[in-house]
Amino acid sequence: MTIDWSQERVLVYSPHPDDETLGCGGLMSKAKKAGAEVFVQFLTVGDTADQSPRGFSTAQERNAEIKAVADHFRWDDWHMALPGDKYHLRLDAVPRVDLAQVIERESPLSLERLRPTVVIAPHRTSYNQDHQAVAEAVHTALRPSNTALRHHPRLALAYEEAADQWRLDAVCPPNLVVELSEQEMRDKLRGMELYGSQTHEHPHTRSELTLRSLAVLRGMQAGVALGEGYHVLRCLA
């Protein structure tokens, strides 16, 4: 399967700031260099307890990080749908119909308004409740229907994160690998570095070595040096 990224309008769903870079930072770099449009729909952010010396990061800090990452990847636009502690790490308490409506038509980056050709979302097997809620809502929003009435992206993918892999019910390896150049790998690592409140030294699921190691593994499985793995949810040839 060969994708001409120069012809694509890519919409990435990121439950929190950094998920989009962890899951598809390399693809975003590749697509933008080819001439694609790339948009990121964040779902939520709030004050977060973490393992930093202070023990927390604020929503204000994380929004500043988004702006730096957006400039780095040269996103065409991004939007935060449901900011604040009412929603952060609590998206599983939001009715799926409400999340799906944000994705389908209410957001400035909704499927209806943006009409993307490629949609990329988290995988539903993530241990994180927000990731699961977003994955299921995107799945609902992309349900089969009459394309004359509702927009259908030509390609729908689910991205992976290293933290998802330890589940006993984790799915089989990805069935699509996007080959990455060394520069695209470096772009991904730099993007994650810009999320300073979320990066950690190895061993950690968000360390530089973890991201590179997963890229080496997925690349090896496809016979190339580096890659990002995805599960194909829909592909219209």
Automatic annotation (TrEMBL):
Molecular function in Gene Ontology: hydrolase activity, acting on carbon-nitrogen (but not peptide) bonds, in linear amides
Entry keyword set: Zinc
Biological process annotations from GO: glycoside metabolic process
Pfam family, one: PIG-L
Sequence intervals crossing the membrane: none
Protein name: LmbE family N-acetylglucosaminyl deacetylase
